Amino acid sequence: MTQSQTYDVIITGGGIMGSATAYHLMKSDPALKVAVVERDPTYARASTTLSMSNVRIQFSLKENIQISQYAFEVLKGFEEQMAVGGERPRIYFHQEGNLFLVGAENEAAARKAFDLQRSLGCRIEWWPRAQIKERYPLYEPGDDIVGATYGPDDGHFDAYAVLMAYKAKARSLGAAYITGDAAAIATAAGSATGVALATGDKVSAGIVVNCGGAWAAELAATAGVELPVVPVKRQVFALDTAVKPEGPLPLTVLLSGLYFRTETGGLVLLGKSVPEDPVGFNFSWDDQRFMELLWPELAEFVPAWDRLKLVRGWAGLYDVNTLDGNAILGEWPQIKGLYLATGFSGHGLQQGPAVGRYLSELILQRPVSLDLAIFSPQRILENRPLSEAGLV
Fold it and tell me: What is the CATH number of the domain that holds 45?
């Protein structure tokens, strides 16, 4: 790379947020010069590729529901829309459902969210406890469970394939991908001017989009922007159970927040976020966590899984917004041309399509297809959290 290059837009982070944004920018204005700076083109530690790749309609904030509705729409036609040179990606979108168990303590909030989802046209079902057992005989819902909400359109897909498709399509439309470590955001007179790389080179642009995920707050701080976003380790375990379910199991979320679903190949994927999860850039995984904490809880709900084999595990990072657990999305009010897309707190992958479209519309000053102003960074300056009650 030369000492300095100039673009219209620089995106730091080439994961789902950065690549979806690059795609929408180039699709909207092919004359743009867009560069995506990504430190690891293998995406070995990207949150996008280390997630459980879930997409769900079951939120209690209207805008989060609408974001998911758009994601469903995109995913259904994704392989055709993202074809490059006649080659279609295969994303293996399986709509096997999400099942959220409901207890007496959160029933009122769950019913309120359920009613909101139905009012927005979502396919969502309320199951009494007996129906849970009837549909999934391996489950043993206890007396503390009053029912569940089931989203039949919810499901999972190949996150790596979706990311690679966005990247390939963006590049085919003219976006440049630069392998490098974005070390600092450059500013002058209250405006963004580009990004300094760890090599000492500078990439110049009047618009910088920080899509750094768990690393976004560190990068933002170089421009004097303090974000309540921290990297939190999230572990996933792959299990081979002695007793197999008769068919696919939905992503099932217990009252404690423990969640699991079946995966292709007959495995079960399981995880759980707890307040004690370590903050920092740590990618180690701990089999003792599963053996001592998660397995006993899992076996209580699915007694047939008292015999199983822990096949493997891995750890990725959530970019946790400690203010309210929701996205920080849009232009930073104090620095013209600096846009943020971070703080997704575990549901960023499914929100990538809508976020990429929305950011492109803001940057190009076009009417927005879906108003996501509720996630504006202004609320960070005002210490004004959003409410997402009733669901994990």
Answer: 3.50.50.60
- Whether residue 1 is predicted with pLDDT greater than 60 in this model: the reply is no
3-state secondary structure of 351: helix
Query: What is the β-pairing status of strands 155-156 and 176-179?
Result: unpaired
CA distance 208 to 35: 10
Tens of pLDDT, residue by residue over 283-311, are: 999 999 999 999 999 999 999 999 999 99
- Write out the two tokens for 2: 């030369």
Closest Cα partner for 225 from 383, 340, 358? 340
> Residue 173 to residues 39, 64, 235, 236, 366: CA-CA distances in angstroms?
22, 29, 36, 35, 20
In angstroms and rounded to an integer, the radius of gyration of the C-alpha atoms of the chain is 21
b/e per residue, 32-47, with b = 16+ CB within 10 A? bebbbbbbeeebebbb
What's the CA gap between 338 and 187, in Å, rounded?
9
- Residue 17 to residue 213: CA distance in whole angstroms: 8
Residue 340: inside a domain, yes or no?
Answer: yes
Does one domain contain both 68 and 208? yes
Q: Which domain holds residue 249?
A: 98-153+231-318
10 Å CB burial of residue 133 (0-12, 13-18, 19+) is: middle
Q: What pLDDT, in 10s, does the model give residues 176-196?
A: 999 999 999 999 999 999 999
Domain match, 298 and 309 both:
yes
Say which residues have a Cβ less than 8 Å from residue 174's Cβ, sequence separation at least 6: 26, 30, 32, 33, 34
56 with 168, same domain: the answer is yes
- pLDDT tens digit sequence for 252-273: 999 999 999 999 889 999 999 8
**Both 167 and 303 in a single domain?**
no
Q: Which of 290, 318, 346 is the last residue of a domain?
A: 318
Asked if 32 and 228 count as a contact pair (C-beta separation under 8 A), the reply is no
**Final residue of a structural domain among 293, 318, 343:** 318
Looking at the fold, whether 250 and 263 belong to one and the same domain comes out as yes
Position 187 in a domain: yes
Residue 35 to residue 8: CA distance in whole angstroms: 8
Helix, strand, coil abundance in the chain, percent, nearest 5: 30, 30, 40
* Number of structural domains the chain divides into: 2
Helix (H) or strand (E) holding 229: strand 229-241
